[in-house]
Write a structure and sequence with these properties.
Oligomer: single chain
Strand order of the largest sheet: 1-8-9-10-11-12-2-3-4-5-6-7
Radius of gyration: 21 Å
Order of helices and strands: HEHEEEEEEHHEEEEE
Strand content: 35-45%
Distance between the termini: 64 Å
Number of helices: 4
Structural class: alpha+beta
Largest sheet: 12 strands, antiparallel
Length: 204
């Protein structure tokens, strides 16, 4: 190849790469009558399952510090039971309660109680984990009581959800579930990050 041809090819390469990446990127649909109607129908179906649980892994970071654990979340109506196990130390935590109370076990000798699970975790473990909202977000739903903005994929499943200052990304779904349930959920608020890798769902 001649030098001029090589220079021209080098100049074209970034453009070609950008075009290939754009072609491979998943299509994102903005909110519209059709997508919001599909989301409402999806939320109605998922919310009818008042008892569910999932297991997987979680990673939490505040920009300076962080941690990861095996996680199992059980939900029965408004009652939740969240169990965390550090993979290296084997240390176990348990957070359980409902929309108005929270009990954290495993951090100190005695159980710790509070009115808000997120505040309790932030104070005792320095983890920003919006537990009450995650009950909805982890299933691809909008949490009640706050404005939400969504984008969707071609199957009209949420790709991103912005609510309460958090941006939630749905990187993958269990497509064989009906409705489809998220497999990878990444949540970000400023320097705070939560990464959920769900290995199995057990809906009602």
């Amino acid at each position: 190849m001649r030098p001029r041809s090589m220079i021209a090819a080098a100049r074209l390469l970034p453009l070609l790469c950008a075009l290939v990446l754009a072609a491979c990127a998943p299509l994102r649909l903005r909110e519209g009558d059709a997508t919001l109607a599909a989301q409402q129908a999806r939320e109605t179906a998922v919310l009818a399952q008042t008892r569910w649980q999932f297991s997987g892994r979680i990673a939490v970071s505040n920009g300076d510090d962080g941690g990861n654990a095996d996680v199992e979340w059980q939900q029965n109506g408004k009652d939740y039971d969240l169990r965390l196990r550090a993979p290296v130390t084997g240390k176990n935590w348990r957070l359980h309660g409902d929309a108005h109370t929270a009990v954290l076990e495993g951090v100190r000798e005695q159980p710790l109680r509070g009115a808000n699970a997120a505040e309790l975790l932030a104070r005792e473990a320095n983890w920003q984990l919006p537990v009450n909202e995650l009950e909805y977000w982890v299933r691809g739903l909008r949490a009640p009581g706050g404005r939400a903005e969504l984008t969707f994929d071609e199957a009209q499943r949420p790709v991103t959800l912005q609510q309460s200052g958090w941006t939630i990304e749905y990187r993958d779904y269990f497509a064989d579930a009906e409705p489809a349930l998220p497999r990878k959920v990444f949540a970000t608020k400023g320097k705070h990050r939560v990464r959920l890798f769900i290995e199995s769902w057990q809906p009602q």
